[in-house]
Amino acid sequence: MNAPAAGSDPMARPVVPAPGRPAAGPPARRARPAPPTAPGGYTWGATRVLGHDTADELGRVTALARSIGQAAVEVLGGSRPAAQLSRWTTPEIVQRFQQRADMLRLLQEQFEDKAALQELHRNPHVRRCRVCRVDRGVYEVALVLVEPRRSRAVAMRVERLGRGWSVTELEVG
Q: How far is CA 22 from the centre of its chain?
């Protein structure tokens, strides 16, 4: 008995396309533009294509706003340092939230029932997030954050600065 040739299957039948239909083959690939290259040869974001897709921008801004809104309330509650906001916000916002957190900490020290006051700012989570495009690369966001004993409103303005996003205005009610 002769051995079959390498790569051949004696039981396999050739695929014949149905009449009037083209033969199935690999899907056609679209040519992607090359990602930008910074001086020095570093290619950033090689796995994604840069563009101005509004749906993609909206998703990124929504995710950023939810994270920053929750972090801002945690800063006020004392469970997160204000410096963690510095990557995504302006120095003025970080300084303002640090001062506000310091004032709340002084009030907590004078409050008799400290456990009840500390519970007030624990475990915030985002209940609702509304994002509105104001201009190209500029969004305004309204959030509702829920804590165990209260709800808070958070408003912010998110702008594209260079290749990244930054929160330029942030208010917590």
A: 43
The backbone torsions φ and ψ at residue 56, rounded to the nearest 5 degrees and listed phi first, read: -65, -45
| Residue (of 73, 70, 66, 72) closest to 90 by Cα position | 72
The letter for the amino acid at 101 is A
Judge contact between 72 and 171, C-beta under 8 A: no
Nearest to 76 by CA among 57, 94, 55: 94
Q: What is the pLDDT of residues 82-129, one digit of tens each?
A: 888 989 999 999 999 899 888 877 877 777 766 665 665 568 889 999
Helices 54-77 and 91-110: crossing angle in degrees, nearest 10, is 30
d(CA 103, CA 76): 9
How many Cβ atoms sit within 10 Å of the Cβ of residue 147? 16
Prediction pTM value: 0.63
Q: Residue type at 59? A: G
How is residue 102 written in tokens? 């310091």
pLDDT tens digits, 142-156:
999 998 888 999 999
